[in-house]
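Narrative progress, year one. The postdoctoral researcher (J.K.) led the effort to move from monomer predictions toward full complexes, under supervision of the PI. The following entry was the first complex the group processed end to end, covering 875 residues in total.
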Amino acid sequence: MSDPKDILPTLIKDRGSLHPINHMKDSIMNLLVSFGFEIIDGPEIETEEFNFDMLNIKKSHPARQMHDTFYVDGKSNLLRTHTSPVQIRGMLNRTPPLAFISGGKVYRKDDDATHLPMFHQVEGIYVDEDISFAQLKDLIYKIIFSIFGDHVKLRFRPSYFPFTEPSAEVDILSKEGKWLEILGCGIVNPIVLDNCEIDSKKYSGLAFGLGVERIAMLMHDVNDIRDFYKSNLDFLSQFK
Amino acid sequence: MKIAYSHIVKFIKEAPSIERLSESLFHLGHEHEVIDGVFDMEFTPNRGDCLSVNGLLRDLAVFFTVELNQEIYKKEINKLDIDFKNLSKNICPQVSFLRLEIESIPKKYSHYLENYFKELGVNKNNFFTDISNFLSYETGQPTHCYDAKKMNGELIFHETTHAVEFETLLNKKITLSKKNAVFSLNNDVINLAGVIGGKSTACDNNTKTVLVECAYFQPESIIGKSVNYDIQSDASHKFERGVDPDCQENVLRRFIQIVSEHTNIKDISLVSYKKNDLSKHKIPVDIKKINKIIGINISKEEYLDHLIKLGFCIKDDFIIVPSYRSDIKTHNDLAEEVARVIGYDNIDLVSISIPNKENINLMNIENKLRYFLLDHGFYEVINSPFVGSISKDAIKVDNPLDSNRQYLRTNITDSLLGNLLYNEKRQKDSVKFFEISDIYFSKKDSSISRNIAIIASGRLGLNYEDFSRKINKNYFEKIFKEILPNQTFDFNIISREELDTKINSEIISLEININSISSEILSYKELSTPPERFNQYSQISEHPSSFKDISYSIKDYGKTIELQELLLNYKNDIIQHVYIFDYYKNEKKKEIKIGFRFIFQAKKTTLTSLEIDEVYDEILKSSLKIKGVTIPGLL
């Protein structure tokens, strides 16, 4: 007969898991920190000035309408629609070179199978002398290869954001042969630098923003964005 | 916007295939789908100038020889005598009116006009409105047709200052509230400017004399109107994005030309009102700047050649921006034009290196806490901040999605309690959650707090040590003492009396500000690590689960591990989870008792007891093949 000391069954202590969206956000942020970016934070309740005006989003822009943005406190403030105002706060009172990222919750007035009123973004900005679109491309390649592997095919498409010019959207080619939008990026509009009291004649910048849910859905093969927020243990326990 | 391939290609000398044209459009950044010979275009909001056949051709001219040869009426036209006042020239700096009388209404349209309706599946309306719609498609400039016989009196363009009733030409009655740019006839609103005309002055199938209005409206005064009044119109889509402020008279001359190709014109008169003569925007030629922004090295000649093909003029070392390109203001805008022409994917990478900051410690108090909780079986959740209940200090959302989401939550615990009850209803008997989030209050002095909230109830864990132990305050106090021996926490027991549940396990919770956590936690050595790879998610079942327990007796102790290996790795589609819930060694009897719990659940159906029993029997058979392993009481 075997020695009784050797027969204890394995004690399996159930470990919990990070939320897959936070895990993805942390992974992206850690990657960007390794590239030299510094993490900065900002409030989710913002002013129109920081969320729109400073970013060259004109008063007439559709995004500022009540049907797209959540306003609070009798329209004196709003729930930030992107993490870009954090970058504005970061740029104020600092001098280039500066490179920082911010990640967190953002809010838009959407609610359907593919859009939620709350989702997560990670954005980055790098301001220095002589920053070019070709360098931005290099950085984006590095980011996407690090997340999806260097076998992935990507393409840059001209796009429009009031705070970058030129602007681009970047797609990756899925296994099924479909182009999927992954991030938006561009050269910081000199108006935005001037708004932050950074001399746009001397300095230029690049900026990019990723939707965390979008990337998490692709990486984990989750089809319905709402699954992330049901707090279902059968779902959460798959991301250990 | 839908644009037919055949309507584009007839103006291109090289006559490219639809595939080639599609490729060129993508190259220029114009997203689209091709469906049955029609491009369904999706333009970025700054490219209102592309919302027409001519607009798209102007961009394609960078790759092809484009011949825009549509005829316009060139003869001199009498000045229209109209009783018109423009009281809001800032909103409408340019407007032209054309009065046109025809002999008879044509019964048949010429090929190109007929083809427009056919290829795009557009419904016909009446002769003048049909031409107006075609012109908007061809030139990008909307026009509005009034039945001239209904237009007697004083016509005024102005902004409303109070609520006004208005009936659209599509018979929709709306109340125009606050400021709206409108045309009024004898003080009655007859046109919501830039959006839709009114019923009272609309053309019909008998209209032979038309008054055509062709204007430029500042986009800022049009934006939001169509959404506010739930009126989607081609005109509002174009005016919101900005039309060419310098094309109105030409478009009306094109209108006359098309009419003249269908019927005899009895009388024409035209008048234009302009606030100021338009001065064209100029940007100095600076190739160094362009090369620097993009990170390329092209010659000045190549740069200017690209711009000229896009319709820009070069004069005295200045780039003159065409009137339809209101989006071009700076060198960065011009750099984007050049980059589009070159192709974003054709721009070579230039290596970038960001100066590294000093090492950033990512394991701060917040992250240490997260990993400590993971080690104790807690799952991190993220909840929506929107709640329906009114609580003191809650911030109200001015424009909520619905009444159940009209406030921002003032605590996380209520959300976690909802998560816990949801999982208990899904037959989970051990639930441990935590969430970290900013919480906002309307209080002026402390409006933001970064909180961590923890909740747990049920079994301590799903293993033979913890299965029979229930989560209580002592458990929380014990695990927190491990990492924060000098800090006390006020753990809360949430009463189940008011809750919709039959379960009676204690619910323990804690919610505190992250800043109140002692830095002692930084010395905690976490066991959990983030997953090395991103797991492929497997669709969870919405069907009920059920469980079966099997208790074994083992005389040959060495068989314990063999049995464990077999059962914990037992594969079957309906087995969702297996764990050891009981283990006892009876030294006197020299016997080990070990209990396994099997959770059964199917992905797509509710399991029958027969289906479960089949798998259960297979498990029994397999396990009993191990010598020295028995199931007491099993016949």
